[in-house]
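User: Hi! I'm working on a homework problem where we have to compare a predicted structure to a textbook description. Could you give me the structure for the chain below?
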Amino acid sequence: MLAANNPNILELLASPPSCVRYRHPLLERLQPSLFVSKLCQDSFGKFALSQMRKARGLNKKIVNPVAQERKTPLDFCYVNQHQGSVPLLHFLAARGWRQEDCGLVNLPHMKDLYGLYHDPTADYAGIVRKATSNEVALSSIPKEAVQAAVLYFNKDGYSTYCREYKEYWAWVEKRNEARYENTVQHGKNYDAKNLMHTLRLLDMAIEIGRTSEIHVRRPNRDFLLQVKSGAFEYEELLARAEEKTREMEAAFAQSSLPDRPDLTQINARLVALRRAYYAEQRPQNY
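Assistant: Happy to help. Predicted structure tokens:
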């Protein structure tokens, strides 16, 4: 993971002495400079952007909650009326019709369009067979039956809704309630902690590109804590992150860092470290 320039592992290796309770002396042989490379642009940068996407995703979920009562295909059906269309449920309610007394037939060469028929005495299948149906139902319609309207089923819209419904309520079930409540309390409708990490990681990536060094302690700690507390507007922080992304790209474009760590040197160092460690463990009279 160090050779892959994983941000978490590099930060652990570069932790200042004040943050370390015990470090085996042999670990002094593993310095960040052995591993740091231009891979950090992707590892730190992509990790930062993933945090940004998480914040965006949470923003969307908070601002656009999905009602727990699940919609059905009936909510995505429309019928022609005069020179426009009306929702199917409004159409049925205005006439006092039940969807169970209706039947549909395919209209040739017209995708997701159906002929709508109504007859309480007929053995129609209904527009949907049951409340949990994900498709409209087709019926056998007598030739003499009179078509009441043309029905359109927005199947793509219903599929999108089903996906968003599933994602939203899976998120509700798994979300960290304390963190979510903090997000709601600061009233900015975004995951402030994710955006704080976005800016922190981008700052570190810029420093690595410019200085080839990893600084775990952040000089702008107060600012980052303000971000975490929700002191800034969502769009302002995203604009900052996008600007820092450009700075990061420029820093690595001019960086003297190697494209990737020297695996031969790393493996040699690891072998030497293991030999030294096992030599320490060997009994004196061995």
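For your comparison, note the following. Strands lie at 77-81, 84-87, 102-106, 113-118, 149-153. The longest helix spans residues 39-63. Good luck with the assignment!
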